[in-house]
Please model this.
Amino acid sequence: MRAVILIRILVGWVFVSEGIQKFLFPAALGWGRFAKIGIPYPHISAPVVGAVEILCGALVILGLQMRTAAVPLLIVIGTAIATTKIPMLHHHGGVWAMLHESRTDFSMVLGLLFLLIVGPGSWSVDRK
Model:
């Protein structure tokens, strides 16, 4: 199925761009954000997560070892949901605020699960 490339580009590009931003804006989106939400060793973990997002996101876009690359991305997005979205349930706005803020996160989870199920499609490096 050739249309799978659209989902690969969508999902992969979100991760690549978020990973790059962790390096471009470290105080706001990298180690600073990780420290704010309580992730241990933020000066180490943020660049590692950023590198994983860039590398695995690019592999998803290319369709190269895509299923393998999707697994660390699911861990990254699962951690993001657990550390930044689930806590919103207990703050102002509750479930509606959480659902609004987590729309991209849940879309990425569903996109990754879709790609794990259907594979990289016919327009992928793995198929060549």
